[in-house]
Amino acid sequence: MPDLSHVEQASALRAALERYNHAYYVLDTPTVPDAEYDRLFRQLQSLEAEYPELQTPDSPTQRVGGKPLPAFGQVAHAVPMLSLNNAFSLDDVVAFDRRCREGLEKIAIDYACEPKFDGLAIRLHYADGLLVQGATRGDGTIGEDVTQNLRTVRNIPLRLVGKDIPSQLDVRGEVVMLRADFAALNARQRARGEKEFVNPRNAAAGSLRQLDAKVTAQRPLYFFAYGVGDATAFSPVGLLHGAPQEYLLRGVLPAPSSDGLLNQAAGNAEPPLDRTFHSELMDRLAGWGFTVAVERSVMRGAAGLAAYYAEMAAARAQLPYDIDGVVYKVNDLVDQMQLGFVSRAPRFAIAHKFPAEEVLTTVEAIEVQVGRTGALTPVARLAPVFVGGVTVTNATLHNEAEAQRKDVRVGDTVSVRRAGDVIPEVVAVVLEKRPLSTEGSNESLYPPFILPKQCPVCGSAVEKLEDEAIARCTGGLFCPAQRKQALLHFASRRAIDIDGLGEKIVEQLVDNALVKTPADLYRMDLASLANLQRMAEKSATNILAAIEKSKHTTLARFIFALGIRNVGEATAKDLARYFGNLHALMRASEDQLQQVPDVGPVVAASIARFFAERHNIEVIEQLRAAGVHWTEGESSAAAVMPLAGKTFVLTGTLPTLSRETAKEMIEAQGGKVTGSVSSKTDYVVAGEDAGSKLIKAQELGVTLLNENQLKELLAQ
């Protein structure tokens, strides 16, 4: 057993090593030589090896990684890790500033401006100042638990320092690899004769997702904090001096007073507190030991944002890390709360992307791809070229009109970019490099591109409606290309959800004529699946089990899984709530379909056309006969359900119901839940610590309900 001197020695070594770590990795001002750091590190290692009870979770020795993990567990984010809407031009930025000013009724707004790191977004959770969990962003709701790997990132504090540290804290940020470290890593890869990494972002993401944390520990990763998620231990006063924007929006905030400032609690007589800003929150993070971007700034109005953008664009090449744009956030946290969110992005923030890189290459062929809905898309097959951090061999030409407008032909030299740094596209043709039929001639060697009249996959006729730019194959499920995409969509997680039925398996099922329609999936047997390439009996058994499990679903999922054109997940839910059962939906006229919220003439026509096709009805009947089922509900039409067409807003914390539960109860009765109060809002359901939404509802005379009153209304 260690005695008191050993305990004190270990504590002193840990404190010293963390100070040196902070000075080296965060402040970039080393205070001791590497040899001295290594000596103290080995001393602590020896002490902990001799007395394992001295080892603590925040010990610097724990950054080296443990045993390889068999797989990453899933982590649900308490507050979703939302994405940002993008701006690609100054006009987009001006429009964003105008929306914010109009939403807040202000003449000018201050914005916190930051570089947009090109790395991997992660969340760090601290309890009583100690790092207890780290996760990737994932889909924004569910991420991967990579705690063990994140402990190896040297500039992530294992224990926070400083004052006023909340008992529970979620920190949001980006794991990157600095350019110099990336170059050194690739040099080591070359020296070992191993594959080099494509770009710093891929290297960082791949390093962080290693199952063996010891591998991650050997990679030079770096973490930048850019915000906070949830901090449940913040008091109202604490909230006003560093509250995270997402947490404010959950309603845990003192009520505004008549002069627009916040009181410590609703209805008290305390004087108003000062407002708090995102820029101050970043200062607090730096004080607790996190690395934050030194290039951040606070700018006023669209002109200030434009100036910051120009400054960062000029400095981009000299930065030690990669960025693909800048981020603007309304600096005032209370103003952020008032602006709220739209869909899966905040209204108070936007990412201003830099123009994509452009390079020259040649067009080797132009092919036509057929999508799930039959859309024909011309695609240029390119001589491989490195652009935007990846090697590009294909680029979209969007549609026939766009291909002809740019006059892209085989053999042309073209400028290629990754639109939004994501989708490769042909920008323009370099006409002076176009190959000619004969020397001295002005005629091109290759003819202009013309979209085929028959589908290149199945030979069915191609049609283009007058109001559309896209031509489509009329083959439907008869077309193998549409069949593959339709099956993948049908089996996707948000549709019927057949786990394990991926692209490679679907391709084999269609190519081998084993599956023609989604109903055929439910006729599959073990022998047919097990005979597929790279498919063992165990894997086939798992897929059959997933197919069997998928038979029990919901009407909304089933409607979405059918792949009706223009019917997304939200519309499928609206249709299921309104009609209550599939038979009522299938026999509805276009006029009846337009009675559903957010269903207009175009969507109604798509639905009607789908159910008018006999082969679609046959597939549905086969699916039902195969055992696909759900619980039928009642129609939510106004004559049956009184909440149909009613709009609700939830604010504050309800005594017994979570917001998600309350939302589901309202939607089950035909109501609609939105995130902002307007003159069209019918009810505002207010709980404890309700914020500005409650005040706006009172100003507009919207009916207010508490939890009990909501339950009484639902009971009707």
From TrEMBL:
<feature type="binding site">
    <location>
        <position position="137"/>
    </location>
    <ligand>
        <name>NAD(+)</name>
    </ligand>
</feature>
<dbReference type="GO" id="GO:0005829">
    <property type="term" value="C:cytosol"/>
</dbReference>
<keyword id="KW-0862">Zinc</keyword>
<feature type="binding site">
    <location>
        <position position="174"/>
    </location>
    <ligand>
        <name>NAD(+)</name>
    </ligand>
</feature>
<keyword id="KW-0479">Metal-binding</keyword>
<dbReference type="InterPro" id="IPR013840">
    <property type="entry name" value="DNAligase_N"/>
</dbReference>
<dbReference type="InterPro" id="IPR004149">
    <property type="entry name" value="Znf_DNAligase_C4"/>
</dbReference>
<feature type="binding site">
    <location>
        <position position="455"/>
    </location>
    <ligand>
        <name>Zn(2+)</name>
    </ligand>
</feature>
<dbReference type="InterPro" id="IPR041663">
    <property type="entry name" value="DisA/LigA_HHH"/>
</dbReference>
<dbReference type="Pfam" id="PF14520">
    <property type="entry name" value="HHH_5"/>
</dbReference>
<dbReference type="GO" id="GO:0003677">
    <property type="term" value="F:DNA binding"/>
</dbReference>
<dbReference type="InterPro" id="IPR018239">
    <property type="entry name" value="DNA_ligase_AS"/>
</dbReference>
<dbReference type="Pfam" id="PF12826">
    <property type="entry name" value="HHH_2"/>
</dbReference>
<keyword id="KW-0234">DNA repair</keyword>
<keyword id="KW-0460">Magnesium</keyword>
<feature type="binding site">
    <location>
        <position position="329"/>
    </location>
    <ligand>
        <name>NAD(+)</name>
    </ligand>
</feature>
<dbReference type="Pfam" id="PF00533">
    <property type="entry name" value="BRCT"/>
</dbReference>
<dbReference type="InterPro" id="IPR001679">
    <property type="entry name" value="DNA_ligase"/>
</dbReference>
<dbReference type="GO" id="GO:0046872">
    <property type="term" value="F:metal ion binding"/>
</dbReference>
<feature type="binding site">
    <location>
        <begin position="34"/>
        <end position="38"/>
    </location>
    <ligand>
        <name>NAD(+)</name>
    </ligand>
</feature>
<keyword id="KW-0520">NAD</keyword>
<dbReference type="InterPro" id="IPR004150">
    <property type="entry name" value="NAD_DNA_ligase_OB"/>
</dbReference>
<dbReference type="InterPro" id="IPR003583">
    <property type="entry name" value="Hlx-hairpin-Hlx_DNA-bd_motif"/>
</dbReference>
<feature type="domain" description="BRCT">
    <location>
        <begin position="638"/>
        <end position="716"/>
    </location>
</feature>
<feature type="binding site">
    <location>
        <position position="114"/>
    </location>
    <ligand>
        <name>NAD(+)</name>
    </ligand>
</feature>
<dbReference type="InterPro" id="IPR036420">
    <property type="entry name" value="BRCT_dom_sf"/>
</dbReference>
<dbReference type="InterPro" id="IPR013839">
    <property type="entry name" value="DNAligase_adenylation"/>
</dbReference>
<keyword id="KW-0436">Ligase</keyword>
<dbReference type="Pfam" id="PF01653">
    <property type="entry name" value="DNA_ligase_aden"/>
</dbReference>
<feature type="binding site">
    <location>
        <position position="479"/>
    </location>
    <ligand>
        <name>Zn(2+)</name>
    </ligand>
</feature>
<dbReference type="GO" id="GO:0003911">
    <property type="term" value="F:DNA ligase (NAD+) activity"/>
</dbReference>
<protein>
    <recommendedName>
        <fullName>DNA ligase</fullName>
        <ecNumber>6.5.1.2</ecNumber>
    </recommendedName>
</protein>
<keyword id="KW-0235">DNA replication</keyword>
<comment type="similarity">
    <text>Belongs to the NAD-dependent DNA ligase family. LigA subfamily.</text>
</comment>
<dbReference type="Pfam" id="PF03120">
    <property type="entry name" value="OB_DNA_ligase"/>
</dbReference>
<feature type="binding site">
    <location>
        <position position="353"/>
    </location>
    <ligand>
        <name>NAD(+)</name>
    </ligand>
</feature>
<feature type="active site" description="N6-AMP-lysine intermediate">
    <location>
        <position position="116"/>
    </location>
</feature>
<feature type="binding site">
    <location>
        <begin position="83"/>
        <end position="84"/>
    </location>
    <ligand>
        <name>NAD(+)</name>
    </ligand>
</feature>
<feature type="binding site">
    <location>
        <position position="458"/>
    </location>
    <ligand>
        <name>Zn(2+)</name>
    </ligand>
</feature>
<dbReference type="Pfam" id="PF03119">
    <property type="entry name" value="DNA_ligase_ZBD"/>
</dbReference>
<dbReference type="GO" id="GO:0006281">
    <property type="term" value="P:DNA repair"/>
</dbReference>
<dbReference type="InterPro" id="IPR033136">
    <property type="entry name" value="DNA_ligase_CS"/>
</dbReference>
